[in-house]
Amino acid sequence: MDRLSSLFERFRVRAHLFHQGALCGVTHFDAVPGRGFLHVLRRGELVVTHRSRSGAPRRVKVNEPSLLFYPRPLVHDFHNAPAEGCDFVCASLDFDGGASHPVVRALPSLVILPLRAVSGLEQSLTLLFAETEQVRCGHRLLADRLFEVVLLLLFRWLVDHPDHAELPSGLLTGLADPRLARTLAAVHEQPGQSWGLERMAQQAGMSRSAFAARFRTVVGQTPADYLTHWRLAIAQSQLREGRSVKAIALSLGYANANALSRVFTQKVGRSPRAWLDAQ
Q1: Cα angle at 162 between 207 and 65, to 5 degrees?
Q2: Which residues contact residue 123 at a Cβ distance below 8 angstroms, ignoring those fewer than 6 apart?
Q3: What is the mean pLDDT of the chain?
Q4: I need a surface site. Which of 100, 117, 176, 238 has the fewest CB within 10 A?
Q5: Separation between Cα atoms, residue 224 and residue 200, nearest integer Å
Q6: Domain 177-278, what fold?
Q7: What's the maximum distance between 2 C-alpha atoms anywhere in the chain?
Q8: Could you give the strand order of the β-sheet that contains 66-70, starting from the edge strand earlier in sequence?
Q9: Cβ burial, residue 8 (10 Å; 0-12/13-18/19+)
Q10: CA 121, CA 77: separation in Å to the nearest integer?
């Protein structure tokens, strides 16, 4: 079962290489709305600091090759001893919808993962570093795509190891559950279908009561609330692309544009048109 493709086909993440090489002294990274970061430490050590009450640890020491993934805007500083230095490649990440991206909402402020933990990562990183170590035609574009491959491998690891990653309840913990994942993958693929509790439970091979209880515990929402938020996230994405409210409503299983507008206004706090204007 493919638990990630439909998710990232609907809600893209774009990586943009902006640094390769050593970092010395203190390097500061600002928080930009809608933007995350993926840093790859190839060798060396560093200390990472965050502001108090940021949601991330105040000080973290990284002493082995690692990925440092910031899914949300977060000010952070890298501290490196000038005599030692560290070899890095760094990319900014633009998530469709920014903070409303389903995966962004399901992740902690910072994920640090040793490179040795992720199967298949070594081959992708070998290509990535080869492209960043010299300037060749298209090297920046290719590096961006390779960063996206590394990010997808990271998400695959998170879904396969939710306990080690200490993920909060949400989408990714749901995808990590073998039974709930069958329902979530089907809902992601076909959001316009009639997804009542009975049908969702059947997809998971569970009784209605057991499914509802398990879903709420693992995902942190009722199945109906999750379905509504998933549809609204798609609606917001398609509004930004210029689709009409009527066309979006019909594709998502609503009887008409008014039905979608009512739910949208209730959950988002603005009508679809007012929300789009504010964007």
Answers
A1: 165
A2: none
A3: 89
A4: 117
A5: 10
A6: Arc Repressor Mutant, subunit A (1.10.10)
A7: 66
A8: 13-22, 87-95, 35-43, 66-70, 111-114
A9: middle
A10: 25
Sheet holding 76-80, edge to edge: 25-29, 76-80, 46-50, 59-62
Could you tell me which residues come within 8 angstroms of residue 76 by beta carbon, excluding any fewer than 6 positions away?
A: 29, 37, 48, 49, 50, 56, 70, 110
Indicate if the pLDDT at residue 46 is higher than 70: yes
Structure tokens at 30: 């600002």
Question: CA 29, CA 36: separation in Å to the nearest integer?
Answer: 10
Q: Going by DSSP bridges, is the β-strand pair 46-50/59-62 parallel, antiparallel, or unpaired?
A: antiparallel
Residue 10 tokens, joined:
């609907």
Residue 150 has pLDDT above 80, yes or no: yes
Three-state SS letters, 21-43? EECCEEEEECCCCCEEEEEEEEE
Tokens matching residue 169: 């309840």
Listed residue (112, 100, 107, 133) closest to 47, CA to CA: 112
* 70 close to 110: Cβ distance less than 8 angstroms: yes
Give domain limits for the chain.
5-165, 177-278
Instruction: Locate 125 and state its tokens.
Output: 């990183």
For 200, the token pair is 């969702």
Find the angle CA(27)-CA(31)-CA(37) to the nearest 5 degrees.
Answer: 70
Say if residue 74's pLDDT is above 80.
yes
Kindly report the pTM of this predicted structure: 0.86
Cβ 215 vs Cβ 223: under 8 Å: yes
How many Å is the Cα radius of gyration of the chain? 20
Q: Please identify, in words, the CATH class of the domain defined by 5-165.
A: mainly beta
φ, ψ (nearest 5 deg) of residue 81: -70, 125
Mention every residue, 6+ apart, whose C-beta is less than 8 A from residue 177. 214, 218
